[in-house]
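Lesson 9: reading folded outputs for more than one chain in a single document. The general rule is that every protein is listed as its sequence immediately followed by its structure tokens, and records are never interleaved. Here is the first one.
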Amino acid sequence: MTAPRPSLRPSSLKRFLEPFRAALGHAARIGFGAVVIWLLVRTGALQPRLIARAVAGNPGLYALTLLLYLVPLQVLACGRWYWLLRASNVSIPLRTVVRLHMMGLFFSGFLPGGTGGDLVKGYYLLKGRSKAEGAAALGTLVVDRIVGLLGLVAVAAVATLTHVSIWRGSPMLGAQAAITLGAAAGGALITLAYLSPWTPRWLPAPARAGQAIENSARGFLSELAGALSAFRKAPRVFVGGILISATVHFILVIIYALSARALGVELPFGLHAYVGPTLTFMNGIPISPAGLGVGEAAGKILYTAVGATHGQAEIPALVHTFALITSLIAAPAYFFRRRPAKSRGHGAARS
């Protein structure tokens, strides 16, 4: 008599299919970006020869713009996160922060959206930490993204208010301006409410930044909420993070302007300040790897609306080449990372 074959339970089948589902999701996102790029090239909206001509015809300008993307922009972005970690009293060396930042840059090159690398940073940041320490560390990533978004909105709002004549007569640009100014007003109100001494019932009472209390009865989400509320007692750190973020996005506007010059597109700098933040936001939407295809399509629409006669999609495409090169340069931080040694004694603190 033959033994019955073991049946796959639903939970086992789900675990078996999970890697295939993840791979299918990544393939779909990469395929979406590829299809958008193909359509742009097919319709003539994106011309790779213009990008090649910009690189070959202006190698010095291209190298300068790449250096701007590689050094001051990344130093400020990494320094902002390190400052938040220090304010939260998260025990982590600067070299580890730099390595994790570079790992995030590498994975952001092919994970959906411009912030996909945060998932990898968060994974390695939580390893070996207790519940309270992990919540404080993860909270800095969340706050880093919040102040980054507030800085982006601030730059976009200033550009919108100083270029009223551009969007006043255009329904599409007028709608964009309304959304930008609405987001800026909402961000200002949220920031004031967050930093105010008054505490709504739904918001955890503010704790001093870095003050982590180990309590086994509290879940991880409660610990994370407490870690996020800690910056309410560190307003200079929170506001300083917004100012650093605004500087980062201003540098990105310069990068867009220099990319346009390399392509021979003559536009006032203020127009790049008006368009650039929206393109940066579009690149961050988790649709395709690093926003590939999405940014080019948005650039075609927005740069045409502000008066560019050519190079509309090629400008964000050229900026994407800087992001790709930066991702490749940062790759050794992941592939040659030091493997943790196996502990022979007591392990790391556990919750």
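And here is the second record, again sequence then tokens.
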Amino acid sequence: MNQKQSDPDETLAPTLSTGEGKSDIKEVCRQPDATEQASGQSVRRFEHLVHAAKAFIFTVILKDGQPTCTIRYPGVLEVTGYAEEEYAAQPLLWLNMIHPEDRDVVLGQIAQLLRAETPLPIKHRFMHKDGSIRWARNTSVPVFDSEGRMVAYDGLVVDISEAEFADVKQEREIADLTAALAMVKRLQNLLPICCSCKKIRDDKGYWQEIEAYMAGHYPAITFTHGLCQDCAKKLYGLI
């Protein structure tokens, strides 16, 4: 990242990486062995589904209530553009990718999880490796052992950029149409009138005497005629 970012609380660092992070308990961080996984066919189907959904899943391992490392699953490269090795080499890469205006939302979600709470899903922006801004929906839930102790939390990150940018485009188009409509209404309230003869130009571009124009557009109005003092003096020399 080109911008210099402030470091978060060090206790959160492992939770912000989708790489392996750093841990003294490699046994806790190891990938589940064959006896703990579903069949190979089911795993492949699962990976295909996550890839199709433009998503990835991660698990943050806790020890004594503190994060120790993050296990990443297939899909992270497709969603973020960064390979597993890059996350492993830069534990804070995921945090640095998050849009500065959205970091408090992400850190707030993590804080809730570390309190063994289940937060609502959040939406936030992040910077893809290709430099583009993407939108993600992040859903995370705590994981408890048989004794009710929180031992990890699982997260699902889905790229929702297409839908979010479509909504933004629609909102922009609605705003433009609303502004155009307001302009039309303002123009409708303008009445073009000749500064010399005082004829009024109608919607078809024809110039009409004011009486004819008003009778055609406002038939309820009835005109009566007289002379103002200025015209009476000009025409007849009357005071």
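What the second record shows: The CA atoms of residues 100 and 127 lie 10 Å apart.
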